[in-house]
């Protein structure tokens, strides 16, 4: 099995067999799906006793897949000997690889090449002839469907419009959809399209597919439609998003940060004013499973939160006002870059595998100090209010504490 290969056969011969198998799988996928974009090299993991293989890494070149294999050797092989059974080995490997894949292969948003963006901006301006104030946010290669026929082209997302341009076999297709006319945005699928963004306006439905990163494209579209709607209906939200008050100054990075903040607050059900500061891949010691659970730490103004990679497995919310100390522990091979967060109820949370641990701890300690200072002031106000009430003086202060 692949687990046995990782544990016992550490030579390049094992990798070679997996690489050839990856080529075969890629070739079959390409034959069966003409739109497939399959990496020709893969590293596979097989659960003992199962005929199912799971892809744990992929690469476009042998050099790239070798880098992933070297990462597995450096970060996994030397620790497998501490496990007593194969099930624990498989669980450990999957957890480590899941963190690696989500942070390396699938970042929340992809960075854009400045030179390519400038080229796209020139084409956008020449093809659609908008006023100079119409700012292009980002662009994507995709297909727009006309009935059962896909038209390959470019989707341009600007401050006020969703635009699409295609020129194929002498036929030009140009679409301009103002965000104010968008009634619904949704991801759908049918017989012809496996994953599609559907844009509904009062007059028509438009389907777009074959994005290289449909999740990112859909999130940016959601943000632009939402910002446009809120700009029309109310101004309350812009007190929390100063960068969105002036439409001409909105950037893709602003929308990314807004999307991340909204996801963070909604997922952990936090107050609307809570601002996300860091998102860090790590693992948390979970006593109920007697192991470290892979996930992500989210830090904000007043909270430290954790969500496991496996949905619903483990979610933690730690208010900073309950935290007594945040300490770095000794770095070891079994506990890399660990920190301990201790709270007033005599409970401690152990996080490991924290990238840039020193900076993270420094930022957390600074926020902890600010939160404690705020609660000291609140405590003094409460005490003054109680004294005033006991003496029958009444209280006219503005104190409101939840």
Automatic annotation (TrEMBL):
Pfam family, one: GRAM
Family matches, as InterPro entries: GRAM, PH-like_dom_sf, TBC1D8_PH-GRAM1, TBC1D8_PH-GRAM2
Descriptive protein name: Uncharacterized protein
Source organism of this protein record: Melopsittacus undulatus (Budgerigar)
